[in-house]
Each structure stands twice: as structure tokens, then as C-alpha cells.
Amino acid sequence: MNRPEDSRPVGQRGPEIVVAAVLAVLALLVIKDSLRVGTGWGDDGPRSGYFPFYIGSMLLGASAWILLRQVLTWATTKAVFAERSQIASVFSVLWPMVVHVALIAPLGIYLASVLLIAWFMRRHGKYRAAPTAAVALGVPLLFFLIFERWFLVPLPKGPLERLLGF
Amino acid sequence: MHGFSVALTLQNLGFMAVGIVLGVLIGVLPGLGGANGVAILLPLTFSMNPTSAIIMLSCIYWGALFGGAITSILFNIPGEPWSVATTFDGHPMAQQGKAAQALTAAFTSSFVGALFAVMLITFLAPLLARFALKFGPAEFFAVQLLTFCSFVGMSKEPAAKTIASMMLGFALAAVGMDTVTGQLRMTYGVTELLKGFDFLIAVIGLFGIGEILLTMEEGLAFKGRSARITSRAVWDTWTDIFKYWRTFLRSTAVGCWMGITPGGATPASFMSYGLARRLSKNPQAFGKGEIQGVIAPETAAHAAGTAALLPMLTLGIPGSPTAAVLLGGLLIWGLQPGPMLFIEQKDFVWGLIASMYIGNLVGLIVVLTTVPWWAAILRIPFAVIAPVIIFVCAIGAYTVHSSMFDVVMMLVFGVAGYFFKKLKYPLAPLVLALVLGDMAEASFRQAMLLSQGSLSIFWANPLVGSIAGLALVLLLWPLVGVAQSHYRAREGRA
Fold first, then answer.
1. In this predicted structure, what is the pLDDT of residue B272?
2. Threshold 0.80, pTM exceeds
3. Of A56, A149, B106, B188, which alpha carbon lies 20 to 30 A from B67's?
4. What total of structural domains would you count in chain A?
5. Which of A81, A98, A126 is where one domain is finished?
């Protein structure tokens, strides 16, 4: 069904079911842990699970309602979630974000952001090397001055900053 | 009058201007909000005298309130939770090329809301403080219930999705250490979850990252328009918007009420927006660029943000997160907030109140004149601005608790935000529930403790009864509409 050459748009039904199911699972996690810490009345008043238990139950009820409605109207739902090309472009920006966040720990946020900005400008903006380098180096440098120097907020730094003595 | 002579020194005016500009910058940058912006800058003011320091810090707060509107309208990214409601109509206006009108309306409404709230503080402070003193946990919870019921009753989205989104917010707020018993909840052994989910992370992810993903899906263009505010546009908007004086008055009333009873600016803006839509002659126009949809939340948010300082000063109970940070500052300077402050520190109190009048006027002038400057960001192509926003979002998420886990959560919230928006789950109740979750739970449990588990405490006296009753009316409001049309249909057939 999901062959790559498939160009039909993705329907709304699948994502609708998945999101409601995820919410239902979260609700079950909330209820399970509420039961663990106790939903009743302790010596000193309501126990820790007292309030979350109702929250979890209502979340479960709401997601079950959404699921049920979707199943009941399964045959008649024709709504489109997105075109496949659109989903492809969402992924083309999502994976660099994931890589960026993954690189913050080893490289520091500034160097990771230099790479992110440079990649975006080359790949999506088709900029030449000179403006790309100017923005990709200039913006993190500016933020470095704002946060490390003026606001004195330390951000994650990597080997490059250590090499320069920060 | 004495207060003005304190506030109007050249030095304090300078601090005001610096505070406003910093505040707008903080408000414009998504993720750097009023509360953590003030918190970051608090240590820098310890060397100043307390009056100047609190004037500068409160001006940062005004600046952030103004600045939040800029990103909401131009980028559809609310810089602050209370400007979420401003995006509903402000952003469509910008898409239609009416960004200047939307911004002028937002700034003017903010100014009007704040002005009324400061007048309220000036004249009614003792009276209203005595009223809020009567509030017990049951009343607090009833006010919060009112806010959340109005969401379900007034939302355009399906009720089940509104409730699901709201409950998800409450559930996320409950994660971590239980503030009453110290018990760990829903952490499932993950140490990063001990401190729970911060609403700032959720806001940055849901709105910042989610919006970038949505923009990417729709092609590489921010759906904003350039926003040069000409004096002509300002004048035209001014002559136009004052015919909505009813909206102004109503929103100011909602804002002041929610600010004093610690509902805060965020629920105030939503309630005011909901009321404006409900009472409008053409509610369908809301969400598509109706100017009243900008006026109502901005007036209420600013009125509430200002009024929130009243219980903080008179009772020592902060009405908003930022007011709580300011309260922390007062204590560090050795000033004990409470009724005694008005007797022992006259200079300080009246200097601060006078600075609210002047600070908001300075703020209005600063934002109206510098908005092209802030909005110039819009003319930068998406391929450049998108990675910079991702960078800023990552910084914002990291600085909340200096934790990499928060940055990862920001991405998760971003993906969730994308799906929620596509599937028409409303995001605002989620954020609001996350912000107010702990407060709502604490007041509910205290109320239950007082009544030994009986719900009857919510109609035990006329005050709490009328608030709780109003909440139920708002919750069941859509059913009234359904019943009415059903009844009419039957009558038509008969």
C-alpha cells in the first residue's frame, strides 16, 4: 500500500486514529500510575492520584469518543491529511532539526547551529557560499555575544569554544 | 502626585526606555518570555536602588506584553501564552495585508487595557484587596473551572478534541513531584521527568516548531506580510477602533477581574476573545481577520497583566508568573509585600504606580515607532529565518532549566503540534491547562480537604456558587443552541 511511487494523498483517517490511540495510551499511563500512588483518601486528605485519576479518565473518555466516531464514519470519511510531496517536505525540515538537537551535546549549540543554518541556506535557499557563510557564522556569533556576554546565560558549548578559552 | 516626582527623574525615565526595549526584544524572541526574561535580568538590578530596579523590571514586563503581539500577528508564533488568542485574528489580518492595522489595534488596546487597570489599582486598591482576601480554595478552583468550561463551550473545534487537549495539558502538569505530598507521579523512573513539563517548552514546541513544520508543508513562504506602520495607518485605525468601545470596556473588565483574582492574563485573553465572538453580530468573521478579535484579547491580557500586580503588592499573592518573579525581587531587596508596604514604603509603591502610567505611554510610543524595525525580520527569506528560529527555539527551550532533555521534548511537542493543528485539536486549552494545572489541582484538593470530599463546597456560599454556576452555564452553552434549533425545527413543522 505504501509503495514509494504511490502518489495518492494520505487520508485523514489513519493519522486521526493514531493520534487518538496515542492519547488513549497516555491516559492509561496516567490512570495506571494514579492507581499506584493511590486515588483515594489518605490520613491527611486526598492522595496524590486523586486529581490525576479523574484527568486520566476524562482523557481516556475523550480519546475513546474520537476513536469511536472515526471508526463509525470510516467509510464516509474522505478528508485528506496531506499530499505525499507535502509530507516529504515536512520530513526534509524535520530530520535536520533532529540532527541539530542531536549535535548540540557533542558540538555545542553554536557550532551545531552554524551547520544547521548553512545546510538550510544551501539546500532550501540555493544561496552562494559567501552569503551562506556570512549568515551561518554571523548569527550564532551574535547570539553568542547576547547570551554569553550580555545576558550571562550559559548555553551548551563544545570543543571549539573550549579551544578558544570559554 | 508625589509618585510622579519619583518616577519622572531623568534616570528612571532612562531605565524605563531600556526596560521597554529589552522587554519587546524578549517578547519578540519566541521562548524568551516575560517571566524568564525578568528572572534572567533580576540579578543585574541588585546594585540599583529598589525603586529604579522595579521600574525597569516592570517596564520589561510591559515591553514583553507589547512584543508578544508583534510575533503573534506577523508570524503566528505567540511570544507569550497570553498572546495566543491574538493570533486567531491578528495573523489572518496580516495575511490580508492589514498588518499595520492589526498591530496598531493591538498596541492601542494593550495601552487602553493597562491604563484602565492602573487607574483601578490607584483608586480601588484597598477595596478590591479586601474582596480577594475572602477567596478560599473553593473560590479559586471555581474561577479556574469557569475558564476551562468556557473553552469547551466556546470552542470552534469538536468538544471531544477540546477536552482531550485540555486533559492532556492537565496530565502533563501533574507529571513529576506532587507539590502537596512530595510523591513522584508518572515519571516511570525517568529522572528528567522529576521536575515535570514546563509550559514554556510546550509553547516553544507546539507553536514555534509546529508552525515551521506547517509552513514547510505549505511551501517555503511565511504567510506574513510586510508591516510598515505609517502615521496615516495609525490615525485611520485609531479613528476606526474606538467605535468598538464596548469591546474595550468589556475586555478591560474581564482582564481586571482575572488579574486580581489570580486567573492571570492568559485565561483573561481567551475569555475576552470568546465573549467578543459570542456577543458579536457576525461571529463567523472571527478567526478570519476580525479587528475585534485583536482588540479583545490584547486589552484583556494587558489589563490582567497590570491588575495582577495589585494582589502582589497588597497581599503578597502574585497574580501571574511574572508577578511571582517580581515578588521574588521585592523580597530580595528586603521589601515585604503586603498592606504595610503602602504605609512604610510610600515612595516605592506610588513611584511604581506612577511608572505604570508613564511606562505604558513610553511603551506605546516605542513600539509604534520601532515596529518596522522588528518587522523587517519578515522580509528575510524563509530559508534563512527558519534555521534561525529553530536555533532560537532550541536556546529558549534549553535556558528554561539548562536541560538538554527539554530541547528534545521541544521537538516532540513540535511534531505533536503539527498533528494537532492538522487534525483540528485546539492547542490553547492544552497550554492553559499545563500552566494552571498545579494551581487548579492544589486549590481543588484544598477545597476537598475543607469539605471532607464533598462537592457541595462549590455552592456553599453565594460567591462560589455564582462562579461555579456560571461555569456550568458556559460548559452547557452549546447544548442550549442545539436545543433551540431543535425546538425551532419542530415548531416550524407543527
1. 83
2. no
3. A149
4. 2
5. A81
